[in-house]
Amino acid sequence: MMKALQDTTTLHNGVNMPWFGLGVFKVSEGSEVIDAVRMAIINGYRSIDTAAAYGNEEGVGQGIREGLADAGITREELFVTSKVWNSDLDYYSTLAAYETSLKKLGLDYLDLYLIHWPVEGKYKEAWRALETLYKEDRVKAIGVSNFHTHHLEELLKDAEITPMVDQVEYHPFLTQAELHDFCKAHDIQLEAWSPLMQGKLLDHPVLVEIAAKTEKTVAQVILRWDLQNGVVTIPKSIKEARIIQNSQVFDFELTDEDMERISALNENKRVGPDPDNFNF
């Protein structure tokens, strides 16, 4: 099992993806995102997750350049993810969107490119474009985000390549057990966005109790639960102390009983939109 911040899971195409990374949703373009990314890399993070829709790819790219220089590591040691937005989901627009993201980030390639949302009637064309990028060795891995089981089933009817990752909202109030089982059966790596439910879980009595027992913070307990469930996780923070603290989850283990108690908190409750019912 993962023992250190730079430990990786192997995707079904053989690419290694860090179990733990930094998310930058709602982190402002400019110094805020530059500093967060730079601090994460300096403090040992090797995975950075952004998206065209976040409007901060240029700052992420700058943070990557500064972080690589300060940490004395190469681009190849980083795992960078971005996502194609809903307005670009036809075949040629997706190809163009990839180029735009690369240009803004100042990178030659992405490690992972995702379809951000399963827009009905559009995501199959976008997937065809991602398959093209992958077959041309322009991107190391391809996947989806916010896809329910039925979206994946529909995609797989025509897909030549099975998605390597499905990044979804995932936390103790939304454990997505059926989706997780489907992903495991098809060798698709599940990845959690909003793993801390935007802070809404931090005073939950069960989590507070487990945190006290393990001498860890509630956030650390939740992030450890993700990892022990085999779920890649990308908590967001812009404060260096929190960025460091979030990553300190490799020096303890939750018991089977703790794991079950946390999973039992599931209420199928979302903080983000339902992928079956969004209008953007």
Word description of this protein:
With 280 residues, the protein is an alpha/beta fold. It has one domain (17-202, 231-242): TIM Barrel, CATH 3.20.20.100. Helices cover 40% and strands 13% of the residues. The chain has helices at residues 31-42, 57-71, 91-105, 123-135, 149-158, 177-185, 205-214, 218-228, 240-247, 256-263, and strands spanning 8-10, 16-18, 22-23, 47-49, 79-84, 112-115, 142-145, 165-169, 189-193, 232-233. Strands 3-4-5-6-7-8-9-10 form an eight-stranded parallel beta sheet. A two-stranded antiparallel ribbon has the order 1-2. α2 (57-71) packs across α3 (91-105), α3 crosses α4 and α7 crosses α8 (218-228). This is Aldo/keto reductase. Pfam families: Aldo_ket_red.
Secondary structure blueprint with pairings:
Blueprint: E1 8-10, E2 16-18, E3 22-23, H1 31-42, E4 47-49, H2 57-71, E5 79-84, H3 91-105, E6 112-115, H4 123-135, E7 142-145, H5 149-158, E8 165-169, H6 177-185, E9 189-193, H7 205-214, H8 218-228, E10 232-233, H9 240-247, H10 256-263
- What's the number of helices? 10
Distance between the termini: 38 Å
At the first level of CATH, the class is: Alpha Beta
Strand ordering within the main sheet: 3-4-5-6-7-8-9-10
The helix fraction, in percent, is 25-40%
Family: Belongs to the aldo/keto reductase family.
Keywords: NADP, Oxidoreductase
Pfam families: Aldo_ket_red (PF00248)
InterPro entries: AKR (IPR020471), AKR5G (IPR044500), Aldo/ket_reductase_CS (IPR018170), NAD(P)_OxRdtase_dom_sf (IPR036812), NADP_OxRdtase_dom (IPR023210)
